[in-house]
Amino acid sequence: MKIHNYSAGPCILPKEVFDKSAQAILNFNNSGLSILEISHRSKDFVAVMDEARDLALELLDLKGKGYQALFISGGASMEFLMAPYNLMKIDGKAAYLDSGTWANNAIKEAKNFGETVVVASSKEENYNYIPKEYTIPADADYFHCTSNNTIFGTQMKSFPNTNIPVVCDMSSDIFSRVLDFSKFDLIYAGAQKNMGPAGTTLVVVKEEILNKTGRTIPSILDYEKHIKAESMYNTPAVFPIYASLLTMQWLKNLGGIAAIEKINNAKATLLYTEIDRNPLFKGTAKIEDRSNMNATFVLNNESHTETFDKMWKQAGISGLTGHRSVGGYRASMYNALPLESVQVLVDVMEELENKI
Ligand SMILES: *Cc1c(COP(=O)(O)O)cnc(C)c1O
Prior knowledge:
- The protein is of the alpha/beta class.
- It has helices spanning 15-26, 43-59, 75-87, 101-111, 223-228, 238-254, 256-277, 305-314, 339-355, and strands at 4-5, 67-72, 93-98, 115-121, 142-146, 148-149, 154-155, 166-169, 186-190, 201-206, 281-283, 294-299, 317-318, 329-332.
- It is 35% helix and 17% strand.
- The site of pyridoxal-5'-phosphate (PLP) has 12 residues, from helix 3.
- Residues 9, 75-77, 102, 146, 150, 169, 171-172, 190, 193 line the site of pyridoxal-5'-phosphate.
């Protein structure tokens, strides 16, 4: 039976990515060797790394604009500290928007480096909206935000205009919608939400913002060192990077971010329309801030939980259980999830209504 994978991460990837990466494990580029056993310095893998870096910038329309793309290990969580290490001056200051658990984790790390101003927070409402009225201190070294709050199902629809560098954690909506990415100075995204398997993080950085802190940065945490080493400062996560490249190639062949955005909008509209129409369900995020990637919703009457859970599992749906801090359900509709999978969920929700 076909499984409709709604997992929040690691997540569904295109079938052709699974097929091609499985093949590369057995015999990479007809070399007779597995991608798992070749040197990261081999010609074949250097070509993978170069193309992956180049394609990331191409998809984001950042080529020739002073940006570098890197693949770094340690997850998005390590970027929570790499960002302040590389951007917060000694005795400097950083500004953060607190829109969810991940934003909060980033704030905790920044506090270890210096004054960290939280410009606004939606914590008191269990992060069910994106704060919008706030002032960013003009003397901060950078402003940090989270474009999509994976756990709470909210997504920033616009970004503040500011003259200071803008840092954005795009882990769960990278490559999902068209934005003017040149408004950001540092973008990072753990691969396992919308780009590839766990184990690598895409970092896109505008070079001119680096080397301004006066800090001594440990080499492995220094973006400049990773740039100089062409993202091979140490052994990179060869397989996750290769699978990420395959996903980016799939996206390019589909027509790039503009094409997938249309499909993502169609999926989100289909599901949110049903959540709002069906009297048994209600969405947990404020409507104007709803995420097109992670839709969070609950049953109005919890006594239907057992029946509903049985029904969606029978329909081949997997990974729909909500994060413990919100409860209910979370449908993660990342790029590779087909529209048909959303239709299956909507059909189950209607079926439940008819049954009760
Ligand atoms: C999952 C997630 C993270 C953490 O990613 P790791 O790679 O596990 O460190 C950070 N930010 C956001 C928005 C996420 O969804």
